[in-house]
């Protein structure tokens, strides 16, 4: 070792207990700073998630005006509407009537409203969405599942109009951050879930 070489030792106060107190204080301040940084990071994550929160609701009734070249006609309809502030990706939709699952409007009519032989009923046109799995619903927009304009001579329309409040609906959707929710028409609020389950009888729409 060369003569004159010096080793720099940590500055100390010369008082053992004071040195320990200062070291512990510095360690505590570091822990507090780390905790604050983690808390602020999580707060920012929640804030970003809140600013992209989707909220899907069901809209159904009989006052939907269709412009189809035959003038305005009321229609029985069922739609999903995103009233949140972020887009919603639909993973599954389930419909039921009086607790029994249906996969499209035709099966709904067979269950709720058909009294006559099918071949005696007039041919009517529906507006169907088709399979909506994977559909993205922007905030403030809706996704129409079906709309049935009032036909001239089909007794099932009036029966469905009288009974449409017995239609049950359930949708599972996720935000852009893969935060998923289940909304049931029988519940007031959506329920947070880890992931969307596979629907046993999904709405097919055709």
How would you describe this structure to a colleague?
By secondary structure, the protein is α+β, with helices and mostly antiparallel strands. It has two domains: 14-50; 56-193, no CATH class. The protein is built from three helices and ten strands; from the N terminus they run αββββαβββαβββ. The strands form two sheets. Strands 3, 4, 6, 8, 9 and 10 form a six-stranded antiparallel β-sheet that branches. A four-stranded antiparallel β-sheet has the order 1-2-7-5, with helices on one face. A hairpin with a 5-residue loop joins β8 and β9 (180-184). The protein starts with 15 loop residues before the first helix and ends in a 13-residue tail after the last strand.
Quick one: how many beta strands? Answer: 10
Radius of gyration based on Cα positions: 30 Å
**Residue ranges: pLDDT <50 for 5 or more in a row?**
none
Instruction: Report how far apart the termini are.
Output: 89 Å
Encode the helix/strand succession as letters.
Answer: HEEEEHEEEHEEE
Which term fits the overall shape? Answer: rod-shaped
Q: Please state roughly what percent of the residues sit in beta strands, choosing from under 5%, 5-15%, 15-25%, 25-35%, 35-45% or over 45%.
A: 25-35%
Query: What's the number of helices?
Result: 3
> How would you state the average pLDDT, rounded?
82
Q: What class, by secondary structure content?
A: alpha+beta
What number of structural domains do the residues give? 2
Summarize the biggest pleated sheet. 6 strands, antiparallel
Helix content: 25-40%
């Amino acid at each position: 070792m060369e003569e004159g070489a010096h080793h720099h030792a940590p500055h100390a106060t010369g008082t053992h207990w004071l040195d320990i107190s200062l070291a512990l204080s510095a360690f505590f301040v570091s822990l507090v700073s780390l905790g604050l940084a983690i808390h602020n990071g999580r707060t920012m994550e929640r804030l970003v998630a809140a600013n992209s929160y989707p909220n899907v609701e069901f809209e159904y009734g009989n006052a939907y005006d269709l412009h189809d070249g035959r003038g305005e006609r009321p229609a029985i309809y069922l739609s999903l509407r995103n009233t949140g502030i972020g887009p919603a990706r639909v993973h599954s939709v389930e419909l039921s009537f009086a607790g029994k699952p249906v996969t499209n409007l035709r099966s709904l009519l067979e269950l709720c409203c058909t009294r006559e032989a099918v071949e005696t009923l007039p041919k009517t046109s529906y507006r169907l969405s088709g399979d909506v799995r994977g559909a993205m619903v922007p905030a403030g927009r809706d996704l129409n599942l079906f709309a049935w304009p009032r036909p001239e001579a089909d007794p099932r329309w009036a029966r469905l109009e009288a009974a449409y409040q017995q239609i049950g609906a359930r949708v599972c959707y996720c935000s852009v951050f893969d935060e998923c929710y289940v909304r049931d028409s029988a519940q007031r609020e959506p329920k947070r879930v880890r992931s969307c389950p596979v629907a046993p009888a999904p709405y097919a729409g055709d």
